[in-house]
Amino acid sequence: MATINGKDIHKLVVACDAGMGSSVMLASTLRKQLGKSGVSVEHTPVNSIPADADLVICHNGLAARARSIAPGTPIVPFQIFLGDPAVTKVVKAIQQGTDLNV
């Protein structure tokens, strides 16, 4: 398990695969929640995770593929698209500048 400090997250990527729009809603929600923090939130297919991502959030079912596409980039898997505790921890770490274990 690795640790990243919320202050070190400048580019957050929400990676998806299903194309059902749920991850787009999650990215939009994160943009609103993190707007004052200066963190860029991007939405991208899991196979196109940018190399400069500081942190990737994706559904648990995509975590293994995300790790293979972006080795060395912290991946935070979640179960539910809105209100998942893993995503809440990411938001708090960024807003408070605290450590996040990934």
TrEMBL record:
A single cellular component GO annotation: plasma membrane
Membrane-crossing residue ranges in chain numbering: none
Taxonomic superkingdom: Bacteria
Biological process, per Gene Ontology: phosphoenolpyruvate-dependent sugar phosphotransferase system
Record's keyword annotation contains Ligase: no
One GO molecular-function entry: protein-N(PI)-phosphohistidine-sugar phosphotransferase activity
Domain PTS EIIB type-2 stretches: 10-99
Keyword Phosphoprotein on entry: yes
PROSITE patterns: PTS_EIIB_TYPE_2
Swiss-Prot/TrEMBL keywords: Phosphoprotein, Phosphotransferase system, Sugar transport, Transferase, Transport
Entry function: The phosphoenolpyruvate-dependent sugar phosphotransferase system (sugar PTS), a major carbohydrate active transport system, catalyzes the phosphorylation of incoming sugar substrates concomitantly with their translocation across the cell membrane. The enzyme II CmtAB PTS system is involved in D-mannitol transport.
Protein name: PTS EIIB type-2 domain-containing protein
Naturally occurring in which organism (per UniProt): Actinoplanes cyaneus
